[in-house]
């Protein structure tokens, strides 16, 4: 089946629009981020700043901010809490890069290769602690509950991903569990705390949890497509990272489900045994394309995106609502 | 000056006595530890259990429990919070072993060498998240504040230690800052939350903070002595670990302060340049002994121990008080 990839709205970037609309608020969030990564130990702000100032989109704190305002709260509470969300994410990235032996992150050489694995582990721990200090300062046990649960789920997702690496028998359901834990859980927590800060009801918190969760699923699936699709320059990390690590994502899982005997041998050699040659990534991409696996994967992302749209429809009317909706589509379309 | 090392009370182990006295309570703490390290991801309880069930003394949760009871609270709140304290410690150990490239921990091969660095980092993150879930469940913002501050300080101490590694110009004051952060801060938090749980006043919390802090300082200095003093079997980790890593601790800092030109060259080669030969550890121990540096180091530990004794004297009369005092001396004497 032919899958038509939309290219219409690519000039419009709703993330940038949201950042512009919430510019003054985001300045405050950034202040909280910068202030709270300071330490007398020079290596800490140096290493944390290397990653934090490297042009990340700050999508998670932006979502916390936007969902708080969406439910009508105009005070300063989301600043510290948005910074806390970003710190959990940054700590995870620092530990991920050690775990994954990544070479690049956000277009720069990964922090662990510049400062060493040791420093990356410990500065990650520092930022993680700081995130809990920020939540504690805010003082809401409900928010501490949401974010500490999310942190535990993220760690479990990372361990699950590690356990599933090099396993060519992984199912789509297992893949969903991994990305649901390692990615969607923090998106969900980031958007759920918005209405909680605003004092909205449980239905609102549930709707925003769903919005963040499904957005996170679509976001991660789109990211996994990029690893087999985009140019190095466009994505700021090396294409083929997942392939080289033997990390099975949707495009490969789908290609594997349609593989003939010989193709299965190829995936087994390259992903299970990690016995890879120079042109194997190219071959992998060819097999993925042969089975239309990228288009199939986009459909999976589209399904989650539709659920995210259903969830955001439940939000009250507000100028932010349509932008939060546009972000969903943008998340998928950026890979086309 | 000759330093007489006390050997009188070595048969009596006040830690064991305390564990016996609080046996039923500690069973509950252990239940909380075991329950909260469970996960559907099999690798998590497997790896966490490998370290947690390896015969650690559980000194930190024991201290939380004891200081809570000392101030007259008899309920169940310290169970979860003691487990939280132990999880922060366990997470730190898991990350430490990755950072330090340790070969042994508690007499067993270090977890990272059995399960891999990746798994150790991620399971550490899981336990760290779990500790905050336990605190959140308890619901005291004051305790969350104490323990999240301690966590941030520990991470800073670890980074400071990393930055100071291979620096033969480190001063005793800098060494105190490192061990104060990486070790004493968690002891202090563990003992401070006792009176806080019990609803005692600020003076009580301050006294128990001081008790834990100075006990932690004495404990770490004694531990650093062991690395140049004890037999492998007695301590369950390799003697000479600090030396091999170029980690400067009190015995070496003191020996360095009295070193002649040639000795300084030796320390520079072995600890700064990490250019070490087979018999260098032996030589190092000889130099340390030549300058009476272990005895001098014991005196430093003794000073902190005396401050811990001053602090525990402020506690109310209770059968636990004398045991908490005895632990101070035991901490120092175990190295003799």
Task: Please outline the major beta sheet of chain A.
Answer: 2 strands, antiparallel
Mean of all residue-level pLDDT scores of chain A: 91
Strand content of chain A: under 5%
The share of residues in helices of chain A is over 70%
The number of distinct β-strands of chain A equals: 2
CATH architecture annotation name of chain A: Orthogonal Bundle
User: Distance N terminus to C terminus of chain A?
Assistant: 17 Å
Q: Which structural class do the helices and strands of chain A define?
A: mainly alpha
Query: Which pair of chains has the greatest number of interface residues, and how are they split between the two chains?
Result: A-B, 43 and 43 residues
- Number of separate helices of chain A: 17
Shape of chain A: globular
Q: What would CATH call the class of chain A? A: Mainly Alpha
Radius of gyration of chain A: 20 Å
CATH topology of chain A: Farnesyl Diphosphate Synthase
Number of domain units of chain A: 1
Which regions of chain A have little confidence, pLDDT < 50, spanning 5+ residues?
1-10
Oligomeric state as shown:
homodimer
Q: Report strand order across the widest sheet of chain A.
A: 1-2
CATH homologous superfamily (4th level) name of chain A = Farnesyl Diphosphate Synthase
């Amino acid at each position: 089946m032919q899958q038509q990839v939309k290219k219409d709205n690519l000039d419009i970037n709703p993330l940038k629009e949201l950042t512009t609309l919430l510019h003054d608020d985001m300045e405050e969030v950034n202040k909280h981020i910068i202030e709270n990564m300071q330490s007398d130990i020079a290596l800490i702000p140096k290493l944390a700043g290397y990653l934090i100032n490297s042009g990340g989109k700050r999508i998670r704190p932006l979502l916390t901010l936007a969902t708080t305002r969406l439910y009508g709260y105009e005070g300063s509470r989301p600043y510290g809490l948005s910074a806390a969300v970003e710190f959990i994410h940054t700590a995870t990235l620092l530990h991920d890069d050690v775990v994954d032996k990544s070479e690049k992150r956000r277009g720069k050489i990964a922090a662990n290769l510049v400062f060493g694995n040791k420093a990356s582990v410990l500065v990650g721990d520092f930022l993680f602690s700081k995130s809990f200090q920020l939540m504690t300062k805010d003082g809401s046990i409900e928010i501490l509950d949401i974010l500490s649960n999310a942190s535990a789920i993220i760690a479990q997702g990372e361990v699950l991903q590690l356990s599933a690496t090099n396993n060519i028998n992984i199912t789509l359901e297992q893949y969903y569990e991994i990305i649901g834990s390692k990615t969607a859980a923090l998106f969900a927590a980031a958007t759920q705390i918005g209405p909680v800060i605003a004092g909205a009801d449980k239905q609102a918190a549930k709707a925003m949890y769903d919005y963040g969760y499904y957005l996170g699923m679509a976001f991660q699936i789109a990211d996994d497509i990029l690893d087999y699709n985009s140019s190095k320059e466009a994505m700021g990390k090396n294409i083929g990272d997942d392939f080289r690590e033997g990390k099975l994502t949707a495009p490969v899982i789908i290609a594997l489900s349609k593989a003939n005997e010989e193709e299965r041998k190829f995936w087994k050699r390259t992903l299970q045994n990690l016995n890879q040659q120079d042109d194997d990534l190219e071959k992998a991409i060819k097999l993925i394309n042969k089975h239309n696996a990228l288009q199939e994967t986009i459909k999976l992302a589209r399904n989650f995106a539709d659920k995210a749209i259903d969830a955001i429809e439940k939000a009250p009317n507000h100028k932010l609502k349509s932008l939060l909706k546009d972000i969903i589509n943008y998340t998928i379309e950026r890979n086309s």
